[in-house]
Amino acid sequence: MKHLISTLLLLTAAVTAQADTKLYIFDCGYFKFSDISMFSLDNSETDVREMFVPCYLIEHEKGRLLWDGGLPIEMAGKPKHEDQPGVEVEYKRSVVDQLADLELTPEDIDLASYSHFHYDHVGAANAFSSATLLIQQTEYDAAFLHPETNPVFTPSLYSELANSSKVFLNGDHDVFGDGSVTIISAPGHTPGHQTLLLNLKNTGKIMLSGDLYHFEASRALRRTPTFNTDQAETLRSIDKVEAMLKDTGATLWIEHNKALADTLRKSPEFYD
Fold this sequence. Notes:
The chain is of the alpha/beta class. It is built from six helices and 13 strands. α3 links the parallel β7 (132-136) and β8 (166-169).
């Protein structure tokens, strides 16, 4: 019943989605894995080894929202290298430099929200400490109050957000109040993991996956990474999001899907 009510609210609000909402995609890094077993996939089940790392900017008449912050910003401009054994990384230009191409600075960003607080999603978070942070209460508690019990978090990457203004979420959240941008609570990968549902006038509805899935094979085979906080909760979130995709007709963009990312328009181009 809770899911049905949420979906009905989304469908009703979508009628009034703002015509001028724009989505910009930034290249915020690259991974190549020699072994994908940590994602609960056998290396024979897919030949995909590369991942795209995105950052997104949503422009709305009521403000600008940064969604996901990419790899650690200090990696930007360094040669491709092994970040850890068997994992190659590269980050060509920082998201701050890419924002400058749009004549924007981090101080021009009103809101920031991260699908979760793993290092490849909050790598530029400290640069956006002046933005109001939209965060699930459970993610805040894990990342800020009890990071010692969550070794997947790197507090130095987001330490300056401690003093940021914050809106604590306990479920789905209509960011601008018109159905154009909705944060969807989807815990399990981390305690407060979330996805983002966009309703764009010309492009239609898009769901940005966060790390609900990493590969197309993850979705097809219903596999969850070994390092997820809670596998059962992840599967419940998968069921919720898949039902929303069906009900709303939204297209799922797996954020790390490099093959998909290679086909998408990057900033300064945009989707509207």
